[in-house]
Amino acid sequence: MKRIWPVLAVLLLTACGIQPSGVTGGGEAPTGVTRGVTLYFIDAHGDLTPRLRRTDHLGTIPEAMELLLWGPGESSLRTEIAPVTPKRVVVTSTAGVILLRVPFTAQDVTPLGIDQIVCTALAVHVQGGGPRGMKVRIGFTQDTPESGKQRTCPLIK
Amino acid sequence: MTGRLWPRGLRARLLVAVVLVTVLGAAAAAWSSARSARNALVTSTQQRLTAAVAGQIGAITPQLTYPPDQGALDRLRAAVGVHTLVTYRGLRSADGTGVEPVTGALRSAVRARNRLVTQRITAQGRPWLLIGTPIVITAPDGARTPSGIEVYTARDLSGVERQVDGLARSAAGTAALALPLAALLALLAARSVLRPVRELRDTARRLAAGDLGARSPPQGADELAELTVTVNEMADSLQASMAAMRKMQADAKRFAADASHELRTPLSTLAAVVDVLAAAADGMEPDARESSQLAISETHRLVRLVEDLMEVSRFDAGTARLRVDEVDVAGALRDCLRARGWLDRVELEAPDGLLLRLDRRRLDVIVANLVGNALRHGEPPVRVHVSASGDQVRIQVTDGGPGVPEHVLPHVFDRFFKADAARTRTPGSGLGLAIVLENVHLHGGDITAGNADGGGARFTVRLPRDVEDR
């Protein structure tokens, strides 16, 4: 009987208050820093290829889109998106799908050009910590069946 | 527990036991629920804080220049909040709030695991949650590499602790609420157990006091009811055997009374005849005279025996009555001795003028029997000493003989008790001391038999000064 009381007291005390603990895992580390944005262009062989544009930060998908629409600049790469002004892309994200509203019609881009847009948007999304299984829908200025398609990037699986 | 601390009464023991068990049970339940509630609360709070910190970091990183300069680190720290430390290689951004949001273990875990980690510590007397995380660079293909930026931040858990304390307090309060209820239940249980026990005790007391008709009604069908039934059965058989015994006793007494009464008439005739025979005895032959003298003495003894028997029967039947007069004790005793011719053989010491209210005839019977015994069985000198003290008068009769043997003393007042089994033909009836005892009791006094310091037998009669008529 005499031994029960201290045990009881200790048990009651441990019920109250918050005790220090050891180091425990708390999940994935945040991400999002990068030396630049990855833009996708077409190389001499006609293949989709990533190109790092040094911006010292990741930025947003519309910023990356604007850089993409400016083109590859002085290099051996080319773009298959017709030049357009203004270069603003409106981004709406819903569950599992990123909707890009681009300022041109479906006739202004080739399938490779569409891949350029999808891959660049997905790269920003993944580098910012998003899941890689995200789909991308491109909304053209003219309503065509192309606008309804959910697309993925062939280089980002 | 020691016997001294443990209460003796059944009620108190039941009360203590029930209250102890209830309080322990309630405390254990309260403790375990408070504990699990605390764990759930702490876990959810930690998850919320961790997610919030990760979200705050993730919201600013896309706009953060990399590699960062001091300004970028400061912006990151400001975005995460107070108690935050951000490091990148040699650079370091901290706020001077006093709480160091990093421990060695946390730092090495951040570097080794390359994941977000947490640790609870106590600092400045308060509980804190430390969150440490590296910021990683994710390649477009999903590969994650450390960026070298580490963020450490501390979140105050005092609010959670207050909530936990509140939980514990309310749990203790609930447990305390059970206390009066438990005491009440214990009292009720004790009452239901103790009431039959008390009734049984009262019944046993009445039985012990002589009320053989006492019974307690059995209630219910538990062990106590069985015990009650058993006690009642015991009382029944006791009552039956006592009644049988009383009847036998009454029969025996009535027989003695009837027999002695029936014997008296023929014996008076016989005594008259014997008196005639005694007058003629002198002229007989020596043989015939001796026989007739034997017949005379035995007849007188028989008459005395029958008289004694009738006296005892009157006592037994409760018909003996006191006839109280104002009596001068010294005079009465002297008359008693003189009437039997004992004045010269007995020393009488009695204060003159001692007046008592008592039955003169019975006082005569008492003293005559005691002195007669002393003269017959003891040696001279036989002494009668009267003294008065307070509200009682003491009459002591002592002799100079060998005294009464110790083993005989308790039986001297028994009827027909003979101290010496071989000496059966003593002149006494064997009822003398029994009659003395009854007479003393009738006066409300008592009598004791013992031995004087010198060795002689000593009988002490104590009579109250004022005897009520009864």
TrEMBL record, chain A:
Q: What is the top-level taxon of the source organism?
A: Bacteria
Q: What is this protein called?
A: GerMN domain-containing protein
TrEMBL record, chain B:
Enzyme Commission code: 2.7.13.3
Q: Where in the cell is it found?
A: Cell membrane
- Check the record and name the PROSITE patterns matching this protein: HAMP (PS50885), HIS_KIN (PS50109)
Pfam family name, one: HATPase_c
Entry-linked SUPFAM superfamilies: ATPase domain of HSP90 chaperone/DNA topoisomerase II/histidine kinase, HAMP domain-like, Homodimeric domain of signal transducing histidine kinase
Domain annotation Histidine kinase: ranges: 258-467
UniProtKB keywords: Kinase, Membrane, Phosphoprotein, Transferase, Transmembrane, Transmembrane helix, Two-component regulatory system
The record ties this protein, via Gene3D superfamilies, to: 1.10.287.130, 6.10.340.10, Histidine kinase-like ATPase, C-terminal domain (3.30.565.10)
Q: Tell me where in this chain the HAMP domain is found.
A: 191-243
Listed GO MF terms: phosphorelay sensor kinase activity
PANTHER family according to UniProt: SENSOR HISTIDINE KINASE TRCS (PTHR45436:SF5), SENSOR HISTIDINE KINASE YKOH (PTHR45436)
Name of the molecule in the record: histidine kinase
Write the lineage as a comma-separated list.
Bacteria, Bacillati, Actinomycetota, Actinomycetes, Streptosporangiales
